[in-house]
Amino acid sequence: MVHLTVDLIAKSRNHIKKKRGLSFTDYLRNLTHLYFSSKNIDAIGDLSACRNLTVLYLYDNHITFIHNLGFASNLTHLYMQNNNIAHIDNLHNLRRLSKLYLGGNRISVVEGLERLRQLQELHLENQRLPPEEKLLFDPTTLLSLAESLCVLTIDNNNIDDIRDLAVLKELQHFSATGNKLHNIEELEEMFSHWPRLRLMDLSGNPVCKKPKYRDRLITECKTLEILDGKEINGLTRQFLVQWKASKQARKAKKNKDMPSEPLIPYSLTDSFYVGQGPPPAGHMQPH
Questions:
Q1: pLDDT over 70 (residue 2)
Q2: Which of 187, 233, 250, 265 has its CA 20 to 30 A from that of 161?
Q3: Rounded CA gap, 179 and 225, in Å?
């Protein structure tokens, strides 16, 4: 078992070179970046001496639980992708955290981020979930991120519905490739909730095979600059918007020209009889 502790930092060649005559206590106090990716670490020990830590790299390890980070009130970037984390816990003291990388773990519910009011980027791609289980979002967590989150990555998580994400009104970059999104009308509706969206990638979803998929999304979202990795040409959008407006105008004119109620032919037999045979019984013949 390998625990990340100050003793492990002391043994690191990288940090020995940077110490430069400082006492180890002063060195830890001044430390802002800590690089311990791909070190077979399975737990985070006591790092409270690193009180000025702002960036922590712990990706590609074997960490199961997020803990012992309550001291890191100055932390802005946390990289913990490709570990064995199943629950998002113990992050409530990281009030300055702006970027959180948790892709490639075993997280089934996105929760526990209610106090991270400055979080701008959240990366949750490729969770290792049981077959057919999809990544879920706690509504309270989403609501707490509504004013800050600009980037959300949820690729390859069996997601078939993103309507819960409508509250993220500051979203600018959204990536949900390789999921199970299929309803294009729901996507079009989301754009009214995401007025700042500039980049979206839905490659590998069933919805991408819908007729006029790209044209419809480009027309509906005026702020979108890149869709599925391809830049949106301004002239293309202008043409599509004009084409849609023309189509709607023709449809409106057609509806206007059509009578609101079907015309009912006036029955001539109500006032006089027309025909070759004898009149019906009781019917008066004209003089």
A1: yes
A2: 233
A3: 22
